[in-house]
Specification:
Bound molecules: shikimate-3-phosphate
CATH superfamily: P-loop containing nucleotide triphosphate hydrolases
Oligomer: single chain
Largest sheet: 5 strands, parallel
CATH architecture: 3-Layer(aba) Sandwich
Helix content: 40-55%
Distance between the termini: 20 Å
CATH topology: Rossmann fold
CATH class: Alpha Beta
Number of domains: 1
Number of helices: 7
Order of helices and strands: EHEHHEHEHHEH
Strand order of the largest sheet: 2-3-1-4-5
Strand content: 5-15%
Structural class: alpha/beta
Length: 171
């Protein structure tokens, strides 16, 4: 079984995936953004600046395809991975998909001081988050499970996921 985390930038996917990995012995940890950076050997900001978002999305889909050929992974994804139906379908067919939901004001608070996200550079971050969430929400909601992360610690969210899966944590 694979476990996938989807949701907006700032929803806590990477942090919660790491906690899940610590709690679940039999799973490995995979982060699609990290795999893209590893493969392309430059930052996500640089990929967007030099080659554009369309190029990034092509690589993102290829990486996701490769990742989902394997099993027993906790997969943290990039926030925009669900925009392509083919990615979302692949995720749903090959993993249990958790949407980490949060209100736009909370997402804003979590990402406002980070400048490693090209879609949030040089824009009104609050507006951008609102718009992206509005565009993507119906896709995110197709996940097998939705977990509300507002006012919860990553640890609490990870424990909720483990409970939903009926798994035993090692601590
Ligand atoms: C993106 C989210 C980022 C990264 C890229 C695009 C998006 O990942 O994939 O900057 O479209 O929402 P995080 O959700 O991990 O920040």
């Amino acid at each position: 079984m694979n476990i996938s985390l989807i949701g907006m930038m700032g929803s806590g996917k990477s942090t919660i995936a790491k906690i899940l990995r610590e709690k679940l012995d039999d799973f490995s940890l995979v982060d699609t953004d990290s795999l893209i950076v590893e493969q392309e050997k430059v930052s996500i900001n640089r990929i967007f600046a030099d080659k554009g978002e369309d190029y990034f999305r092509i690589i993102e889909s290829q990486i996701l395809n490769d990742v989902l050929k394997k099993d027993n992974q906790i997969i943290s994804t990039g926030g925009g991975i669900v925009v392509k139906d083919s990615n979302l379908n692949l995720l749903k067919d090959n993993s249990i998909v958790f949407f980490l939901s949060a209100d736009d004001s909370i997402l804003f608070d979590r990402v406002k001081n980070n400048n490693e996200r090209p879609l949030l550079n040089d824009v009104d971050i609050k507006e951008r988050i609102k718009n992206l969430l509005c565009l993507r929400l119906s896709q995110y909601e197709k996940a097998h499970y939705t977990i509300d992360t507002n006012y919860k610690t990553p640890e609490t969210v990870a424990n909720e996921i483990i409970r939903k899966l009926g798994l035993d944590a090692n601590h």
